[in-house]
Amino acid sequence: MAAPIDVAVGILMRDDGDVLLAQRPEGKPYAGYWEFPGGKVEAEESILDALKREFVEELGIAVLSAEAWCCVEHVYPHAHVRLHFYISREWRGEAQSLEGQAFSWQGRVAVEPLLPATIPLIEWLDRVRYGQKL
């Protein structure tokens, strides 16, 4: 199996717990599926720097701070990825569709379909957002 591709993934979280999800655009694997925004980490780039770059490129948002939350590996038919999730509660700007993707602020996540690697994280994230016990 090939080495995993490192991907920086950001969870923008508002004060009320709502999080931003983006829909994968046409022409990409899993087009139409919803996910947390992010992208591949480039050579010589830190994960946090990749996250900041991707949010500017995809959504026009400047991430001011973010904390590492979890890391998950997932094998898709087209790629083996290592997803580095960060939670950000501080950013500047309003989300814009710079790559033609739809996006939506979600409380209890209701958009479908979700990208397979995202599904198990929703329950964990609800514990962070709403203080639910394990």
What are the main properties of this structure?
134 residues; alpha+beta; Nucleoside Triphosphate Pyrophosphohydrolase; 4-stranded mixed beta sheet; 3-stranded antiparallel beta sheet; 2 helices; 19% helix; 8-oxo-dGTP diphosphatase; MutT-like; 8-oxo-7,8-dihydrodeoxyguanosine triphosphate pyrophosphatase activity; hydrolase; DNA replication
Describe this structure in words.
This protein has helices spanning 47-59, 119-130; strands at residues 5-12, 19-23, 34-35, 38-40, 62-75, 80-92, 103-106. It is of the alpha+beta class. The chain has one domain (5-130): Nucleoside Triphosphate Pyrophosphohydrolase. The strands form two sheets. It has a four-stranded mixed β-sheet, with helices on one face. Strands 3-2-7 form a three-stranded antiparallel β-sheet, with no helix packed on it. The mean pLDDT is 93. 19% of the residues lie in helices and 37% in strands. It has two helices and seven strands; from the N terminus they run ββββαβββα. The chain is globular. Keywords: DNA damage, DNA repair, DNA replication, Hydrolase, Magnesium, Metal-binding, Mutator protein. GO terms for molecular function: 8-oxo-7,8-dihydrodeoxyguanosine triphosphate pyrophosphatase activity; 8-oxo-7,8-dihydroguanosine triphosphate pyrophosphatase activity; 8-oxo-dGDP phosphatase activity; 8-oxo-GDP phosphatase activity; metal ion binding. Residues 4-128 form the Nudix hydrolase domain. Its cofactor is Mg(2+).
